Structure formats: C-alpha cells, structure tokens
Amino acid sequence: MIERIHTSDVEPDADEVAIAGHVHEIRDLGGLVFLIVRDREGLIQIVFKEEREPELFEAVQDVGAEDVVRVVGEPLESDQAPGGVEIAPTEYEVIDEAESPLPLEISKDIEVD
C-alpha cells in the first residue's frame, strides 16, 4: 500500500500518490466528475472520467459532501485545478460517510442574526 501524503506535497512529476481527506466540493458534468478533496494542508482536485475508469466513475456517483475518501492516482499538471495539480485516480474508497444532511453547511456562506 502506498503511503498517504498531504495535498500540499503532491507534485505533478510523481508516478503515483495517495491522498485522503474530506470531500469539499463535487461537480458532476455527465461523463466527468470533479471532486475537490480537503485535508489539513489544502485542496486538491480529483478527476473521474467514465471512459478511463468506469468502475471508479460508478463508485464516485454516491459520494457526499464531507465524506472522507482515500484516492490513489497519477498527479497531473492542470491550470484549472487548485494548486495547479489534479489526480487521475486508479483507486478510490470512501473511508467514512458524513451525516446527511449536514448539520451545518461549511462550504457556503451562511446568514446569521
């Protein structure tokens, strides 16, 4: 098993990396799903392509905000990704599911009195 590193340590020239963290944001664009994963060091984008990894693409369909996930994959340079690096996953697992609905939405602005 490959040792997990923090998102801030992911370099685009590495062969393979493992990261773990909370699902910060989910964008589903049909045959493409972007997960933004947050750990204590920052954010990283994971790109699931249905044509490349159909099993992983199917598995990510049930992920929820703030679920804890572990991803292994190849880091690639990307101008659109947070930090300039995204991961093309080869392994994906949900370690723990967040309570649903979340008691407090942490990724959106909240009005308070």
TrEMBL record:
The lineage of its organism: Archaea, Methanobacteriati, Methanobacteriota, Stenosarchaea group, Halobacteria. It comes from Halorubrum ezzemoulense. GO terms for molecular function: ligase activity; nucleic acid binding. Residues 17-95 form the OB domain. This is Aspartate--tRNA(Asn) ligase. Keywords: Ligase.
